[in-house]
Every structure is written in structure tokens, then in C-alpha cells.
Write a structure and sequence with these properties.
5 helices, globular, mainly alpha
Length: about 150
């Protein structure tokens, strides 16, 4: 990133590890079903975030315009319109604020990320998306997990 933020990814990565360790301790404790599912979903998301941060660090990105950064599903707060925006590549979507319940989250793979890029950019230009492939490969689950990520 920029010179003034040269250690920002390292700092963010360290914070992510601390939070993962804290969540791991919590999930090992005595929790109810809903609490356990919620913590497990947070751990799943944070493990993907950790892997994403490792990738970003390895590519030594220097700007928020680098492709490795813009391909990641990101959230921004727009103070002018007082809404949360979800961005990925060229797509900007309004966060939907719909509560999906304490549902489990999909383990996000590089293929899932590529699927999400296609879907978010299709939605951005007011089109739909129809993932295709053999049965049982995760098309529906990937789409549902993206819906959780954008709150719709």
C-alpha cells in the first residue's frame, strides 16, 4: 500500500490472527446451538480473511487500485448517503441489511471468489447470473453465501 501505510496489511493480519485465536477459545467453551453456529461462521469468514491477507501481502500490493486488492469482496461506509457499499472489481452494490439468521458459512475457495466476481459484476450492470456446471459442485451454495455476504 502507500508508503504511509506500509505496515497496514501486516497490522491487519496480526489483528486477524488475534481475533481467530479469541474465537477459537470461545467456540471451545460451553455454548448454545445458535451461539456456536454464529462463532463457527465468524471463524470460517476470518480464516478466509486471513488467507486473503496472506495473498495480498505476498503480492506486495502498493495501491488500492491493484487488481489483487479490487478483486476482493470489500465493504465501505458511504458517509454522504449513509449506506454500506459492497465493492468487487468494477461492481458497487448496496448492502441489503437482511438478517440471514445464524446460518453456517461456506468455506470460500479461489473458485468461489471467481464465481462471486462474475455474479457481483453481473448484478452491478443489472443482469442476473446463472452458474453452470455438474451437480454437487457448489453453485447454489456459492450463490447463497454471496447473498449472505451482501445482505440480500
Amino acid at each position: 500500500m502507500a508508503e504511509e501505510n506500509a505496515d497496514s496489511l501486516d497490522d491487519w493480519f496480526k489483528q486477524n490472527i488475534v481475533q481467530l485465536n479469541q474465537l477459537t477459545e470461545i467456540v471451545r467453551g460451553d455454548l448454545g446451538d445458535i451461539e456456536r453456529r454464529t462463532i463457527e461462521a465468524l471463524i470460517t469468514a476470518d480464516v478466509h480473511n486471513r488467507d486473503t491477507l496472506e495473498t495480498l501481502k505476498s503480492y506486495e500490493i502498493e495501491s488500492v487500485n491493484d487488481f489483487m486488492w479490487v478483486q476482493v469482496l470489500r465493504y465501505y461506509w458511504d458517509e454522504d448517503s449513509d449506506v454500506c457499499l459492497v465493492k468487487q472489481i468494477n461492481a458497487t452494490l448496496d448492502y441489503g441489511y437482511e438478517f440471514m439468521g445464524a446460518a453456517s458459512r461456506l468455506v470460500i475457495t479461489p473458485l468461489t471468489d471467481r464465481c462471486w466476481i462474475t455474479i457481483t459484476n453481473a448484478l452491478h450492470i443489472k443482469l442476473g447470473a446463472n452458474p453452470a456446471g455438474p451437480a454437487g459442485t457448489g453453485k447454489t451454495e456459492s450463490t447463497k453465501d454471496l447473498a449472505k455476504g451482501v445482505g440480500i
